[in-house]
Amino acid sequence: MCFFAKPACHIVLLIFILCCLNDALHAQKKAKLVLWDDKPAKNWMTEAYPIGNGRIGGMIFGGVDREHIQFNDNTLWTGDENDRGMYQAFGDLFINLENGGERFSNYSRKLDIKKAVHEVEYTQNGTKFNREYFCSFPDKVMVLKLSANKKRVYNAVISLTDSHEGLVSAKKSTIEIKGTLANGMAYQATALITIENGSMKAIDGKKIKVENADAITVVLTAATDYSNKREQNWKGEAPASKIANIINPVSKKKYAELLKAHVNDYQSLFNRMAINIGQTPLAQSSLPTQQRLVNYKTKGDPELEALIFQYGRYLLISSSRAGGLPANLQGLWNESNTPPWGSDYHSNINVQMNYWLAEPTNLSACHIPYLDYINSMRAVGKIQTQKKFPNTRGWTVKTENNIFGGMSFLWNTPGSAWYAQALWEHYSFTRDTAYLKNFAYPVMKEICEFWDDHLKRRPDGTLVSPLGWSPEHGPTEDGVSHDQQIVYDLFTNYIEAAEVLGIDSAYKNHIADLKAHLLRPKVGRWGQLQEWETDRDDPKDQHRHVSHLFGLHPGREISVVKTPELAKAARITLTARGDESTGWSMAWKMNFWARLLDGNHAYKILQHFITPVGIGGTSYTKGGGIYSNLLCAHPPFQIDGNLGYSAGVAEMLLQSQSGELHLLPALPDAWNSGNVQGLRGRGNFEIEDLQWQNGKIKVVIIKSLSGGDCTVRSPNKLSASAKSFKDLSSEKGFLYQFNTEKGKTYQLSAD
């Protein structure tokens, strides 16, 4: 039963929840979830602001005399099934404004991540100019509107350039790019220009000239003929047809309609979470984002910490939407045809890290592209795997991967098993048994079959992964801890999946036997968790990869509560590896320390992560941090650090990998008081509100979306009025359990 049984109490609870949500949203509004600068961007990687709709994206420079938007479509790739190729830049939109380089004032460009709308404002010749930019998922377009507080002030030349020197043509109100890559991929981009008053015409056959207009609106979309269906040879509808189906209905809509549809769609995802971990003085929070970064180390800025958390959610929504491809090494933003690491899908942590935040931060829908990608790669993976590992069922991957199943660099044999973790996690959070049965389980089983055939059995019965490598250093040998822990995780998840579905009992028991014989983590001579079976770890090794702690995070083999000796060894390893590293590595370390229930150390890593890179006078000789546009610096830019940071903050506030909702498991002293709404826990539980003060929980409201038992671990004593509520607290901590009904809400409060 609900903890508020009487109708009047239901009303009280509803009012309480609304008040809590109002308070949180007010705090979030006050915190101004905005990135801004007082000058145009000059550098793509460090200064321009990103917008995206999961397929097309743009980096906005905001120049006064010349606006520049570099854009992408995340299906534009070279390569094929046998050649990894590279993710490609698509083109550039330029708007040359005929202002003669005249002086301007009151300039600002800002990215409002509450609405996913970018704005530029400035005053020139007594006229106040304004621009709005957004990328719409429902309408599949990028939109830019230039307006002003005076009439007939816009004289401009609008052009598109193609990064592959394809055909550019303009007529009437449209500019188009058309081309074909060397691998046969056809692509097209179309810009539709409309104006208010004034006139426009095509010039040079490639540009549009606007004269004496009150306002200009540009609608841009792009497409390729890519399809994620191998049975169709990765080819789908022609880009011209795709674009016509997008532009024709959009051309009949007013700007306000497009904006409203975009904001409503985006906020349906973004507004599922709010976070308040402290207030920053207005004098500090109102500064340009770059200056806040510079000030952070000396003045602190909890609202900046929260902004970067929500920015990770913004970036995932903007680069990973249902029906499309998953976020790659740079999300979907790329200015180069030879980007670092091909801007590919790296299988030894990077693409996986991109999705750690999806389920816990209430963006389950954004997880779907990654799951679909895994499914789409299976057929090619099986062919390539059979060539490398004859007489082996199932499939695995190399380190570098593209959108056609093509691979390069070293074989990463546990890569597909790590992929399988995402398949299980989506079920674990959603409890969608139809998805588990029809989509996830068959893939998990065939990856288990690979390891069933691939594992090496020693004379004593111990099973080891042959010839593994601990990314990205050390020898290649049997029984590497990284491999062993990932296979253990795969088997654990598969066994649970088979039990949930009540199928394949014989094979489930076989996998359980294999799991029982796996070589397990070992503690070495200086108390560390061994990276290899041989005790050779160097206490001075500070390599960015800490691959042998997979079992701590994102796995669940190592736990402070259930395996304290292994957790202690993991702590010794982490301490030796050091805190400062590349951007994505620090994000992973945040998650590690959170799983070790050490909030202050996780926060210490968080502070190192918020280190400005590429800003004059700041040393970044030790590597990573973030740029002034808050993109993660590996360096160079890699989005996994942004997304991993958000996952790390979530792990500090809620953990559920051990079958219980562990509230504030790694709360740092710096976040002594606060509140959060919308975090999700495994078992399909949602934290509708969690408030704490002086490090102790005041109230938590939990919604059960699937029903079933709920176990809650708390840093302090809580109580609730219900017959099903059981207090299981002991000297090991405060623990509570109660039965839930689907759709019902439950409140626990401090005495």
From TrEMBL:
> Which part of the chain is the Glycosyl hydrolase family 95 N-terminal domain?
35-83, 86-228
Q: Where is the Alpha fucosidase A-like C-terminal domain?
A: 655-748
Which segments constitute the Glycosyl hydrolase family 95 catalytic domain?
254-653
Q: Does the keyword Hydrolase apply?
A: yes
Q: Which InterPro entries match?
A: 6-hairpin_glycosidase_sf, 6hp_glycosidase-like_sf, AFCA-like_C, Alpha-L-fucosidase, GH95_cat, GH95_N_dom
Q: Which GO terms describe its biological process?
A: carbohydrate metabolic process
Molecular function (Gene Ontology), one example? alpha-L-fucosidase activity
Residues making up the signal peptide according to the UniProt record: 1-27
Q: What is this protein called?
A: Glycoside hydrolase family 95 protein
Q: Which UniProt keywords apply?
A: Hydrolase, Signal
Kindly indicate whether the keyword Nucleotidyltransferase belongs to this entry: no
Q: Which domain of life is it from?
A: Bacteria
